[in-house]
Design brief:
The complex is a heterodimer. Chain A is of the alpha/beta class. Chain A is about 40% helix and about 35% strand. Chain B is about 40% helix and about 25% strand. Chain B is built from six helices and six strands, in the order E-E-H-H-H-E-E-H-H-H-E-E. The chains are: A alpha/beta, B alpha+beta. Chains A and B meet through helix 2, helix 3 and helix 4 of A and helix 3, helix 5 and helix 6 of B.
Chain lengths: ~120, ~190
């Protein structure tokens, strides 16, 4: 499964329960993020009792609406209480060094790797 | 006509009336050109790159990240809350900080509500407000805006924000938003 736009791609590999993000995501609010949100929400549902990985290393930019979407999904994972969340980022991508750390505030058990 | 001031909120610096080093006026019709806000932000970051290179590598990365993120969020807000008219951007590198100002016009009622929102941001602890806002968004579900743009400019990038509200022509209110990032210009004499 994947959602592809002009300069971004978000793909989900169901077997490994991994979402891979790439490009630049600057969509306009909740409506435009809905297809991506739906796909990631489904991924969380199928990850219950197991692990779920978001690989953000190739995502060069994410606006605040997109950051909000990821935080909301992290809170959902916290509430479900039975998913091992793993978020992988890159310290070479500026926004990730700035904003990814907040994810652990919303889900203390979340494993965050920023290399 | 000189605009008369209604209020300033937060960390607004009075010298902002001087011309910016980079001054861009974006004409009406921006609601249809949402994605251009990001390209404009990339341009502003690229424009200041040469000057920032004198500052040092870590600060260059931080300052470029700030410009790319903050300009995009500030212009998106101006489009969202404005009434489809011109948006003005001024940015300049001063001795100890980078300053970005985005100016747009909104209907008086919208501007009044916006002023209440930013007063709350200015009065509170940004990180606490961000945490509360994200948890509230999770309870309330999708809404028009995440409310995170301005907060994350402060919490994630370490910038300060200020606002000025002025009467403009007819019933409109000119809203100026200023973001300032501290810069240590060790490389400059």
């Amino acid at each position: 499964m994947e959602v592809v736009g002009g300069d971004y791609r978000v793909g989900v590999d169901s077997a490994s329960r991994t979402a891979v993000f790439s490009g630049t995501l600057r969509l306009n609010g909740t409506d435009e993020y809905a297809p991506i949100l739906q796909m990631l929400d489904d991924l969380l549902d199928t990850s219950q009792g197991s692990n779920c990985t978001w690989d953000l290393r190739e995502l060069q930019f994410l606006n605040s609406s997109g950051i909000n979407m990821l935080y909301q999904l992290v809170i959902k994972a916290r509430r479900l209480g039975n998913i091992n969340m793993h978020v992988v980022g890159s310290k070479d991508v500026a926004w990730q060094g700035k904003s990814l750390g907040n994810m652990s505030r919303f889900m203390p058990g979340l494993e965050l790797t920023v290399d | 006509m000189m605009a008369s001031e209604i209020a300033t909120v937060g960390d607004w610096q009075g010298e902002a009336d001087s011309q910016g080093q980079l001054h861009i006026a974006i004409h009406d019709g921006w609601a249809r050109r949402w994605s251009y806000a990001g390209r404009l932000a990339d341009y502003v970051a690229a424009y200041f790159r040469a000057d920032l290179e004198l500052v040092g590598a870590d600060q260059l990365a931080d300052a470029s990240a700030f410009l790319t993120y903050a300009v995009n969020e500030m212009v998106e807000n101006a489009v969202k809350f404005g009434r489809g008219e011109e948006i003005e951007l001024r940015a300049r590198l001063l001795r100890d900080h980078l300053q970005v100002i985005v100016i747009s016009r909104a209907e008086a009622e919208t501007a009044h509500r916006y002023q209440q929102v930013v007063q709350e941001l200015a009065d509170g602890d940004p990180l606490m407000l961000l945490m509360e806002r994200v948890e509230r968004n999770a309870v309330e579900g999708p809404s028009a805006g995440s409310g995170l743009g301005l907060l994350s400019i402060m919490t994630d990038y370490g910038a300060s924000l200020g606002w000025r509200f002025q009467h403009a022509q007819d019933t409109a209110v000119a809203i100026s938003t200023m973001a300032r990032l501290p810069i240590n210009q060790v490389g400059k004499g």
